[in-house]
Write a structure and sequence with these properties.
It is built from 15 helices and six strands.
């Protein structure tokens, strides 16, 4: 009901921004990773998922025969299915996506897309709307990709929720949503995207800022008056701190000069503590103390051979530590 008022209209309200956790965003990125090596490289879970089943990677990459494997239609389907935000059970999410795929209206405003991308998206949605068998195949494929990832992702939800609470607090204190983007995301990227020819992103639409564990870059989808932006949390949340602490202990284990010398000796073959002490001209208690650190880090192991305890380098564990360090400090993709 309209209400008459003598008050003059005030300035246009700032569009609302809300930080959310989104299962839809995670599944979207998991699907994208099939055709994006960089996305797989950033997350061991995605690498292992697709390496374990190369045929799955091929099916995901080629499901749509239109020259693209972007899967942005999943965000549209989640929006109309009411599961764009939150962490519903996978069965509920899939049911909502499947139902929406048969009912998404044929006319959509997709302001973030170029004309060619918009046409491709609408064509996919039209095919899903017409073809029940295709809808079944689509949701089965989504389930096959995501089911093995589900458990670990849910175990990491507390870290995402911690980041969400932190960023929502910054918004409440008056921070611009662009300032919440991680350092590797140039805040001007969104403005450049919004002003690009062929795109019609409406700046005044409500904004949902989805924190995604699997995000490999900034993703922007503007669908029917909702701007959905997904990105990796810019704060070092609990899971990342724990990972950094573990790596720090392992790096310290091999950073000591004496321990490095021990590793070099052990790399050429198994040795006893007494042999190591003799070759390094240090006392056995000193060697034992250093060996204890290396064993606790998992880099050196002990085996009993011919009744004697021998020490060996666990090469696989050492290579994994070095690879993890390189991966941890690898700069994310830039935009």
């Amino acid at each position: 009901m309209a209400v008459d008022t003598d008050e003059s209209p005030g300035p246009e309200a700032e569009p609302s921004s809300e930080v959310v956790v989104s299962l839809a965003s995670e599944v979207h990125w998991a699907l994208l990773a099939a055709s994006r090596a960089q996305a797989r490289a950033r997350h061991l879970e995605l690498t292992e998922r697709y390496d374990a089943d190369p045929s799955l990677r091929a099916r995901v990459s080629s499901f749509w025969e239109d020259g693209s494997a972007d899967y942005d239609e999943l965000i549209v389907l989640a929006h109309f299915g009411g599961v764009l935000t939150g962490e519903p059970p996978l069965s509920d999410f899939l049911e909502a996506v499947r139902d929406a795929s048969g009912n998404v209206p044929p006319e959509l405003r997709l302001g973030s897309e170029t004309a060619s991308h918009r046409a491709r998206l609408l064509a996919r949605l039209a095919r899903l709307r017409r073809d029940r068998a295709l809808r079944d195949r689509y949701t089965r494929l989504v389930e096959q990709v995501w089911s093995p990832l589900e458990g670990n992702w849910r175990n990491g939800l507390p870290a995402l929720v911690e980041a969400k609470t932190h960023l929502q607090g910054l918004l409440a204190d008056g921070a611009s949503w662009l300032a919440l983007l991680p350092p590797e995301c140039d805040p001007y990227h969104f403005e450049q995207l919004r002003q690009a020819p062929g795109r019609e992103i409406v700046e005044a639409t409500p904004r949902l800022l989805a924190l995604s564990h699997f995000a490999a870059k900034l993703s922007v989808v503007d669908v029917n008056d909702v701007l959905f932006v997904s990105f990796s949390p810019p704060v070092l949340a609990t899971a990342e701190r724990d990972r950094a602490a573990l790596l720090g202990r392992q790096v310290r284990a091999i950073a000591d000069p004496t321990r490095l010398a021990l590793l070099r000796l052990l790399a050429s073959g198994a040795r006893r503590v007494g042999d190591l002490a003799l070759q390094l001209s240090v006392s056995q208690p000193t060697v034992s103390s250093h060996v204890k650190v290396l064993r606790e880090s998992g880099i050196v192991r002990a085996e009993r051979r011919e009744g004697r305890l021998q020490l060996l380098v666990d090469r696989e564990a050492l290579e994994q530590v070095l690879a993890e360090v390189a991966k941890f400090v690898e700069p994310p993709s830039t935009y």
